[in-house]
Amino acid sequence: MDNIPPAPLPEGYLDFFQSMESWQNEQTIRLQKTFAHTKHDLVMRLREQKKPLLSQINPHIDGDLLHGLLDQFLVFLDENRPSVRALTQQLRVNLPKLDFDDLIKFFLVPKESELIGIAKQIEIPGDFFIFALDHALRPVLRIIAESYQADLAAADFHWDLPTICPICGAKSHVSRLRQDDGQRMMFCDRCFSEWKTRYLFCVHCGCDHPNDISYLSVEGQDARRVYVCKRCHGYLKTYDERTSGHPVDMFIENISTIYLDMLAQEQGYTNHDQDPLS
Ligand SMILES: [Zn+2]
Ligand SMILES: [Zn+2]
Fold first, then answer.
1. Across residues 130-142, what is the average pLDDT?
2. Distance of CA 184 from the midpoint of ligand 2 (Å)
3. Domains of the chain (ranges plus CATH)?
């Protein structure tokens, strides 16, 4: 099923996300020296409550740690996205008023309405406020998530909500088919966790009838596929390492394939992001 080749991303778009990932990697390396996470029993937690780990536990992230990261993230934004300087400035002058312990709590549960309410009080758009908090906090979340990599990779690991990250609770929009065995791994671009899910299986509705699952692709991009489900019209972007012969940076893969989201949505498929319970 070949479609027309992709339209290019707006100029500078991918560069921005690549720079942001580099900034976050640098912060993660820096924080590894000072921030330690005390591990919880992941398997028991997920089995008992069926909710992402960070919505169940107190990960003991100090409010001051987020304050410092957010401060530095605003400097990063000033340099790399000058068009949002008015917003970074408005947030910066209000930083002393914010209760960062509360912000971490609201972000992880999550209680988006509380965050939007705080954004309103300091007169910045809710989506910009959540974007800034989310990206400033990611280096810490990635250190926490690293502690659970072995648990997630265990042969008998099972998680009932394949589109939701079992560690941080972010929605996943992309997976890869592992080169050595074709195992599908869901990817979380917030905390970089990966967890297994089945191959001929809709991650949205659980449909596993082979006739109901197919994929879309574009000419000359054989390793990039969008698996679609006839039953719920859900889609999932998937990078096939067996076809390309090599792994890729999944964070960048997700961003650089926005044209596949557009292709799927033009054909009537959805990632179910707008569903009330998604
Ligand atoms: Zn995650
Ligand atoms: Zn489905």
1. 98
2. 16
3. 13-146 (no CATH), 158-266 (3.90.1670.10)
